[in-house]
Amino acid sequence: MTLRRAARNAGWLSLPAVGVVAVFVATAVGPHMGTSTKAFPLLAAGAAGVVGLLAAAVTVEPAWILSAGVALSIFSGNWGYMHVPVPVDRVVIVTGIVTVLVRSVVVKGAPRVEVRRVHWILALLILYAVSSSAWANTLSQHEAAFELIDRLGAVPFLLYLVAPAAFATEHQRNILLVTLALVGAYLGATAFLEMIGPHSLVFPSFINNPALGIHDGRARGPFLEAGADGLAMFCCSVAAIMLLDRPRRPWLRSAMIAIAGLCLLGLILTLTRQVWAGAAAGALLASVASPKLRRHLPAAVVAGVFLVGGALLVVPGLQAKLDARAVAQKPVWDRLNSDSAALRMFESRPLLGFGWGTFPRYSPYYYHVARNYPLSSVGEVHNVVLSNAAELGVIGLGLWLLGLGAAIIAPFRRRGPPSLEPWKLGLIAVTVAWFVQANFAPLAYAFDNYIPWLFAGIALGLPQTATARRREPEAARPRPAWTRPRVEVENRPDSVGIG
Question: Does 416 score more than 50 pLDDT?
Fold first, then answer.
């Protein structure tokens, strides 16, 4: 029955894919067609997409669609290097979000999306940022627009909104965890192949191109940036560890342990200090918060020491690279200079800031030569908090901090079912790691910004009344008449009209 359900879901999932394929056809064939006939492939793509979306909304669990979209987001921004003209991850994620909203209306018994005060704060923040970008004339700029969508970010907020309904059951939540574990296996294996080889097995091949992205010579994965790759592997290792708490066959538990270890090895191979600090802080705080995990903390520390020692023995030249990274000063100077420039910008326009996406435009005027370190470069600010302060001012920064704090704290203010407790611990781990890295990197990569908000939405869960209504059809489903004692039905006042 499980295989039959999976095959049926795969069949319905192929319908939205028809829309994506039609877009590919329209993109490839359109330039070679006449003006009067160009509209046909586009209309076909739109019609196929609408039909697929409606079919998916009725038949496919949104957990499958959203999990697939999040997994594909590791290639976000780099689809062109694979000769893919359409950002597939965004198409799938938007399809999943709309599917949740449509199901809540057209499917009887589907969980409803709960709009809380924190969602209004986040909506106000997006409206303020869009207005700021329009005022600064950066809405048409590609980088500023996608940072608004991903980093600030519109899509993470929407995932936070629909996550409680999309992942309302443990089965649906396991879909996401298994997906993240598989992504972690891919990222960890890719990091190993990047640093140890054979390099010919690295897929996609653009990862090996030193002319693309930054941090060549480190494990950087499909992100083409070591920090983003390391944070993603840590989040995937958290998902693999969370699966250990589920009843599984022994070989599956061993596979999850292997994936977690591979991700942590890849995290070391990124040679990125803020990744190490964030992962250590996130894992430590999550372990301290749980009595069950606290007991395993010494064993985890010992395992981590053996993992690092083994990596130093196996990876050629890793010790020298680690020593070079440990004493490297230029990255520190870059961050000190950009942070100081952002603070000066904030002091210059504290209320409204300079406008969203304007730091590269105005920051050169606010870089000063320090007494204790050189001015090594002029670029983007390596601190998300200071970037928001300089561009959005105290109003935008306050809305962002208020919305972020409310979203993270909300799951811990609601008791929720016991099955959500592991998600709260996972939320602590990924949020701490994300926030540590946000203070040392621009953090504009889609996957890394999706995960904390997705975990926060899932850990929040549905309202108790909605959860009770979802359990009611199974717990209180009327039995056949021949199995119900007549006196029981007649003597129960609350049974009148039931069945």
Answer: yes
